[in-house]
Amino acid sequence: xxxxxxxxxxxxxxxxxxxxxxxxxxxxxxxxxxxxxxxxxxxxxxxxxxxxxxxxxxxxxxxxxxxxxxxxxxxxxxxxxxxxxxxxxxxxxxxxxxxxxxxxxxxxxxxxxxxxxxxxxxxxxxxxxxxxxxxxxxxxxxxxxxxxxxxxxxxxxxxxxxxxxxxxxxxxxxxxxxxxxxxxxxxxxxxxxxxxxxxxxxxxxxxxxxxxxxxxxxxxxxxxxxxxxxxxxxxxxxxxxxxxxxxxx
Amino acid sequence: xxxxxxxxxxxxxxxxxxxxxxxxxxxxxxxxxxxxxxxxxxxxxxxxxxxxxxxxxxxxxxxxxxxxxxxxxxxxxxxxxxxxxxxxxxxxxxxxxxxxxxxxxxxxxxxxxxxxxxxxxxxxxxxxxxxxxxxxxxxxxxxxxxxxxxxxxxxxxxxxxxxxxxxxxxxxxxxxxxxxxxxxxxxxxxxxxxxxxxxxxxxxxxxxxxxxxxxxxxxxxxxxxxxxxxxxxxxxxxxxxxxxxxxxxxxxxxxxxxxxxxxxxxxxxxxxxxxxxxxxxxxxxxxxxxxxxxxxxxxxxxxxxxxxxx
Lengths: 249, 310
Ligand SMILES: Cc1cc2nc3c(=O)[nH]c(=O)nc-3n(C[C@H](O)[C@H](O)[C@H](O)COP(=O)(O)OP(=O)(O)OC[C@H]3O[C@@H](n4cnc5c(N)ncnc54)[C@H](O)[C@@H]3O)c2cc1C
Ligand SMILES: Nc1ncnc2c1ncn2[C@@H]1O[C@H](COP(=O)(O)O)[C@@H](O)[C@H]1O
Fold this sequence. Notes:
Chain A has about 250 residues and is of the alpha/beta class. Chain A has 6 helices and 13 strands.
């Protein structure tokens, strides 16, 4: 059983972005980049399924610039077997990414596709659901637990009111939430080994995907900043302020 | 042009997020039709029919919609989509699940989590955990949109006369996925997403037992309880209480953060609150940069004192 995992190169989650002066976009020059944290969780889950003997091969895939190789190599060091880079410039819309993944799903026939629930840059939360629709596979989004058995995936999902478990007939698409697992760190020997693992580079055209623009980015602004508040010295003062000044209690 | 608004409802009641999404739908400027899908949802459809600005309600009442599974919900909305220019839903764990499916089946993109409507095709939405606000124009003829409810006021106006309620007879199939079980957190407290006051605790609270201190203050204030990711990960409270970039986005009148450092991912979920109070023993904690009232102190002293003095 093969597992396909999505790996997106994004800004490191610790970095606070700045908007460019011309408001054309955020400024990513010299900013630390990393694997999207939800994708790290996806890679970890796939590797664990392989270690448990459930999966036989873990393929990681990224749609992005040549630099995304860094994140793919990182995923290989974490235990993935081979990587596919679909090279493209600029931001690729989730539906176009989903079409690229659908083409690879068609070719590789993975029984499970594991993706993050959300890219922390675009905050879209779309790709897995779109891929499920395109490939006509069932979806289990925002997973905090995944059990694969008897041709089914039992996915416990984080929902607004708590947790919900759904059963998906395999093949299926799963997207990860934060509490699915705690990703490991790559060990030095594995980082060395990862350099020799196969990494194929393709283009969207190779996969037969003609990207369509469904939206245009007109402007990117900094959010309004809250004016600095005050420090109070005691609980009494706090209660007083909340009652008389802010009038919220 | 007509907009289809997908209603969110819980225990036979329309959610307040639906009323916020209705405001967004009206800003788009079209006629608004509302879809109410679920099992035993006639009363919800009836309530939707009296909302001001809604000209038709469609009620899809069938077992298969009970848990709003993405596959049947997606098929249902696509089935209804032909006559709509905009399909819009409040962002929640259900719509986040089925709306991108709808978009892909219609071969259009989705604009997630809009926080402002500039015109029928131009919207603002937060990106990078709310550290930037993008203005985007949706180019496709059909626009699939989810709405950040906390950015819009509720449209709670009622019409004297109800609009017609139509029954949708299309029953989607769900062959590949099925509901197994729910583990829903029962609480007497107000719902976190729509509460006007929230008391939140972070890693600093230390344990699940200690959260009783947070809950006691919340109960005194009639507030909902929230938490940081660290508090949820550590098992102090359940996942549905997480506030932040990847949890719930809230904007109450009063947000009180106890033992929360103020990571950007947490701020992303609460920095639009009207009044923010932070209590932290570290005077350099970043949460103080967004707090209207900051108190440097030990939450184990502040919480009981505050609860007793209110
Ligand atoms: C992909 C991703 C998504 C994330 N999404 C979210 C999200 O949605 N929501 C979220 O909250 N986080 C999220 N995070 C996590 C976030 O980065 C922080 O790790 C988290 O918010 C920290 O929680 P905290 O403030 O409770 O803990 P800490 O950062 O450990 O802070 C604890 C604070 O408590 C204070 N404290 C300790 N003891 C006391 C005491 N006795 N009295 C008073 N103060 C005390 C300390 O001074 C400290 O400031 C996400 C992270 C990633 C990578
Ligand atoms: N360009 C990409 N390359 C690889 N995986 C991606 C890409 N974009 C999105 N994904 C996957 O889809 C998930 C959800 O992304 P999004 O819909 O952009 O929020 C991510 O966590 C990734 O696992």
